[in-house]
Design goal:
The protein has 194 residues and is an all-alpha fold. Helix content is 76%, strand content 0%. It has one domain (14-189). Helix 1 (14-40) runs antiparallel to helix 4 (110-135), helix 2 packs antiparallel against helix 3 and helix 5 packs antiparallel against helix 6. It has helices spanning 14-40, 47-74, 81-103, 110-135, 144-164, 168-189.
């Protein structure tokens, strides 16, 4: 039997790592579910799949809140100060996005039209930062400027898609490209010794 490292900030437990990875996976489902719903609007042939996407989106959102709350309560001691700030920002943003749709008059309102997709993408970026934080993967070289440029491109692409209103295929492709660019940007900007 081999000795395992004690569960500390330097070595988060498997449960914390698994919960952070699960929260990130749920965010990806949420973002793509929301994108599917948004891009399927107006196409009567997609009403059935859009309704399924709504249910998947809702279940994933509830699961994300529960998992993130679990990480905040049970994994707080194993996360470093930087991860505390990111987790707190993620929780605040998730709560703000929850109320955004409730307090605005319609989903066509510019605040909702831009806020939801950009906020969802921001949640994915914060979620990936937490994955990097608990994985303790060494980033060969931190390149903050390149990371910021990729993040700006990702958010710009989503803003352009909101204005453009493409069909389902092009919209989901743009969402995928923006998500990959943001994850790459966060990876490049992640400090080596965080």
């Amino acid at each position: 039997m081999t000795a395992s490292a004690p569960v500390t900030r330097e070595h988060p437990g498997f449960g914390t790592k698994a919960a952070v990875w699960l929260a990130f996976a749920l965010l990806v489902v949420i973002v793509f579910g929301a994108a599917f719903i948004r891009f399927a609007q107006g196409d009567a042939t997609l009403d059935g799949p859009a309704e399924v996407a709504r249910w998947v989106y809702r279940v994933a959102a509830i699961a994300f809140v529960l998992v993130t709350a679990g990480v905040a309560v049970l994994g707080w001691e194993m996360l470093g100060p930087g991860a505390h700030a990111v987790l707190a920002a993620q929780i605040v943003l998730a709560v703000a996005l929850t109320f955004l749709g409730r307090v605005t008059p319609s989903s066509d309102h510019p605040l909702v039209a831009f806020g939801n997709p950009l906020g969802g993408l921001a949640l994915v970026g914060l979620g990936w930062w937490l994955v990097l934080a608990v994985s303790r993967r060494s980033v060969r070289r931190s390149m903050p400027l390149a990371g910021v440029v990729l993040a700006v491109i990702a958010f710009g692409a989503i803003a352009a898609v909101v204005l453009w209103r493409p069909g389902l295929g092009a919209g989901l492709a743009a969402q995928l490209a923006a998500t990959v660019a943001l994850v790459a940007g966060v990876t490049l900007a992640y400090p080596r010794n965080a």
